[in-house]
Amino acid sequence: MRIIDFHGVELEKVKGSFQDYFNESFVTYVEDGKEKVFSVLYLRYFEDNYTEFTPFDQNPLWEINGKPCYIKDITALFYLLTKNPRRNQRRIYICDGKEFASIFEGMDKEKGLSILFQ
Q1: Does any domain span residue 84?
Q2: How would you classify the pairing of strands 91-94 and 34-43?
Q3: What phi and psi, each to the nearest 5 degrees, are found at residue 6?
Q4: Inside any domain, residue 118
Q5: Distance, first Cα to last Cα, the chain
Q6: 31 within a domain of the structure (yes/no)
Q7: Highest taxon of the source (predicted)?
């Protein structure tokens, strides 16, 4: 597997929806010669209260090439690499704080950076 890109977005409210309560994280990768996109949709509450759900003490976590890297930018990447979902799965939804926190178990800034630059 080769990682091509990863990023996250804060969803914006669309009339009649609750989208402004969610973030979505994306990772694009190549596996078996095919480009794939995997995303994690989760409650923004988890990122707003990141010290409760992650081992990190600041958000943005790092600055990479002069750009801030936020939790929403790395969530799908870390999920893909640590939880190893079925590769035919393209999107998951997380509404449970324990499940969100499990993505970052055993993670620290140094280990996170090593994942980003492997």
Answers
A1: yes
A2: parallel
A3: -150, 140
A4: no
A5: 11
A6: yes
A7: Bacteria
Residue 65 in tokens: 């090439």
Write the pLDDT tens digit of every residue in 71-95: 999 999 999 888 876 667 789 999 9
Q: How far apart are CA 8 and CA 5, in angstroms?
A: 10
Looking at the DSSP bridge assignments, the partners of residue 24 are 9, 41
The per-residue DSSP string of 3-43 comes to EEEEEEEE----TT--GGGEEEEEEEEEETTEEEEEEEEEE
- Structural domain harbouring 62: 2-113
State the total domains in the chain. 1
Q: Supply the pTM of this predicted model.
A: 0.86
Instruction: Work out the angle at residue 43's Cα, subtended by the Cα atoms of residues 39 and 46, and round it to the nearest 5 degrees.
Output: 105
In a domain, 109, yes or no: yes
- For the chain, the C-alpha Rg in angstroms (whole number) is 14
